[in-house]
Structure formats: C-alpha cells, structure tokens
Amino acid sequence: MNEEIMTxxxxxxxxxxxxxRELTPRIAAFAGMLxxxxxxxxKLLVMGNGGSAADAQHFAAEIVGRFKMxxxxxxxxxxxxxxxxxxxIGNDYGFDAVFRRQVEALADEGDxxxxxxxxxxxxxxxxxxxxxxxxxxxxxxxxxxxxGTLKDIVDLDVTVPSGDTPRIQEGHxxxxxxxxxxxxxxxxx
Length: 189
Description:
It holds the Pfam family SIS_2. By secondary structure, the protein is of the alpha/beta class.
C-alpha cells in the first residue's frame, strides 16, 4: 500500500512540474484576462461535468466569497449548481443544452466564460463556449489530455499535460487557486 501511495504522489508531482514548466505563461494570461474583465465590470461564468462541475462551483465560490484576502465579492456564476435550471433545460432541450442555454441567458460581451473538461471534448461545454464566442465573451478552456475539440474554439486553452483524469483535476484546482490568488492581488493590492 505504501508503494502505491508513493507512486500516486510521484505522479502528482510530475504533473505539477509539467504544469509549472509548460503552463505558467498561459496561467498568467488567464489571470490577466479575468482581472481585466472584472475591472471592467464583467463577470465570470464557469462550467464542467462531474468532478469538473465541482471545480467550477469551487472556482465561483472563491471569486464571489474570497480566496485569501478580505475584499468585496466579485461576480461569478457556476452554471452547474441550480438543479431546477439544469433539470428543466435537460428535460426540455436535452443535456447538451444545459450550459448553452444559461450562456444565452447570462453571458454579456466581455464576460469570461470558462469550460472545464478533463477530456477536452464535452459536448455541452463545447456548445456553450461556441455560443459564448458568438456573443463576444472571452473563452478559456481548462482542459486535459490533448485539449480535445475545445482547445480549438477557446481564446485560451490551459491544457494540463496528462492523460490521467485525477491528475488533470488536481492540475485544474491548482490552476484555479493560482488564478484566484492573482485576481485578488491584481484587483485589491
């Protein structure tokens, strides 16, 4: 059992080292885009499925509530949290529309719309990001593997260089925490 634990921790460390080596400029760009948008009175919309839905909710909570700094709340919405909206849209239009319909209702030009997908190929995230692009939003993909179909439609892809879903999710939450820290410092220091 100890060997398996050490193997998992080594794997985590290797992915985090690759994130540092390969994604630092993209993470900085992501944070810069979000700071500029929030300074301009825009908001963050964020979505994903399964574990990525939980990460989307976590991201929005850190932006609306606080990350480390006592400060005013900032506008962010996780499109994954309202069960009435999700089930109504899913029932009436199908699961592929659950995020797209919310982007249609909530996204304004200049908002930052983030899709999380460990595969990079979630259809409902793709459709929502495509609409966000049409509406003049800034689109970011927190992705995994090779970035899938999403990397080609977002303004900025931040693709964790791993094919292992747990490691990708760990990369995503680390990136989210770094971005939250940079947003607070960029807006309030």
